[in-house]
């Protein structure tokens, strides 16, 4: 079913919206949740919560891209769930590694004075990503938005594994530079 | 296993959370398969046909070598061309091959061919990737706009070593004139000194599952003394608080980082699983000590 038709189902409060969302984007959302949580049960719950959240958000929201809209919900839910469980135990899978890597982008505290709002950080990261070359931006997003493994990214873009790692290394350094220059503290 | 402090982890999570607001267009674009080829990046002739051309070039040069064998002058013996039992050392002498006899002539021709091929391969790499970002003095590594292909060509160095002497750490440090701590988790360290064209102090060690080889020399040679001769496909130049350093990485997982620091020329090399991250960490570990 087309995205517009699924969105119409949500707007019409038709419960088939959830069924159709599951059909079209169940696997996509599950992969996002899995990459964060590395647990079948948690990922399943996360995806179910995604439909529930979407049901509560549409209307009034009318997403431009339903898949990404749902994926974003899944990602946020998965991150929240991961944060809730991490005090009990550091997760396995890609999350700890991804966190290690992304921490390199955190500017040194002494280079900036004031913390900024999360919205500003979000705006700056967006601006930074727009400045990156397309390939590097894509690789960065696959890694730090979708939490994909290096080899998945390499396969997706038909790149060598080292190329992916080098690209991420460079992009992390650039992001750190960028945030420092913009005076962002995290 | 993660090595983050709790504070750093919180900060990293905030960045990941902030990324939830990434523009949908960017995310949609990243969904496309193999966009690198759609982004205007040119796949060069050499990139596509380089290997086939390389094989042809090798055959042609070998044929020429056989044909003109009678006209070639005899070269002097070079005892240092014998393999030393260490992989990295053995690679040093291979391309030079200034030994006598018909077999050696073939080897020399093959080495010349290999070098030509390698140069061609260099020229086929994606130079755009090394486009500069910044050279400002600041904390942390910065990729520079250095013409790294040329830099590597200039700095590639084939050395002959007459002897390789294994020794313990104390004797090695006395010879090198510096006390050098290996990374905390390093294991199975093997220290040696290579004597020949120049004197090189070498240590192999294991970190995790990966073998590193660190070399340094006080002889004046601002060049890559790693002995790594591979088909590099990614190279770049970075600058950090200790100065400029260079990377070269090969598709097969080899990598080298080299730099000049004070009176020392240094290299850190990996025969597999090399990444800029791993090499940078090793480089920073040693550069910090050399700066002290």
Question: How would you characterize this protein structure?
Answer:
Chain A has helices spanning 3-11, 16-37, 40-57, 66-86, 95-102, 118-131, 134-144, 150-157, 161-181. With 186 residues, chain A is mainly α. The model of chain A has no long low-confidence stretch (mean pLDDT 88). Chain B is 36% helix and 23% strand. Chain B contains eight helices and nine strands. A nine-stranded antiparallel β-sheet of chain B has the order 1-6-7-8-9-5-4-3-2, sandwiched between helices. Chains A and B meet through helix 4, helix 5, helix 6, helix 7 and helix 9 of A and helix 1, helix 2, strand 1, strand 6 and helix 8 of B.
Tell me the number of strands of chain B.
9
Classify the helix fraction of chain B into a percent range.
Answer: 25-40%
Q: Mean pLDDT score of chain A, rounded?
A: 88
Helix/strand order of chain A: HHHHHHHHH
The percentage helix of chain A is over 70%
Poorly predicted runs of chain A: none
Strand composition percent of chain B? 15-25%
The biggest beta sheet of chain A reads:
none
Biggest interface, chains and residues, is: A-B, 58 and 55 residues
